[in-house]
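Journal club side-thread
Mid-discussion, someone asked how the predicted structure for our own chain would compare to the paper's figures. Pasting it here so we can look after the session.
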Amino acid sequence: MIFHIITLFPGAFDSYLGESILKRAIEDKKIRVKFYNPRDFADDKWSRVDRAPYGGGPGMVIQALPVARAIESALKSCGKRSVKIIFFNPSGKQFDTAYAKTVAKKYEHIIFVCGRYEGIDARVKKMFKMEEVSVGPYVLTGGELCAMIIMDCVSRQIRGVLGDFTSLEESRIASPDAYTRPEVVEYKKKKYRVPRILLSGNHKLIDEWRNNRKK
């Protein structure tokens, strides 16, 4: 799986991609991440890509052509392989694990178009076949966090990214609550114990307990 990210701020991804599971997945060549900065495709000699919105209003809007050229560059890199272009919009299709599984199974390349400021000139959505996706009913400063969320969830569906594929909580009986040693934790003179059922060794009852905790 190769993730192509259209963003004005590629440095925003450094920390998250440089740690833990995604870092290992990149090192093991299970996933790749490529960046395309619209500033590199700007007509302006100062690489400026934002302009005041038509109709008035606060803030700035990212111009259509630099973004379109960045997407074209990403598509060229993909060749003729299966490609999904995702445009982030709070009112778009709600992202969930089922969506991540479908995308991971169907596509080899995902292009994320990350907006900033007052957004990207809407004409870009008419230039390419893309799906508007939301990670939740709220507005963020930019699409970079959205891209990280989807990239993380999709990557988990790729065999080999997790050390043990059964680590996928959504594919096994799991509880939102987990416990480990010691059996009794004392904090401010109060003792907190592991639920007795988890110490029983009866896996049938443990699975039933975990299922009930999901409800």
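Post-session note: The chain has a mean pLDDT of 89.
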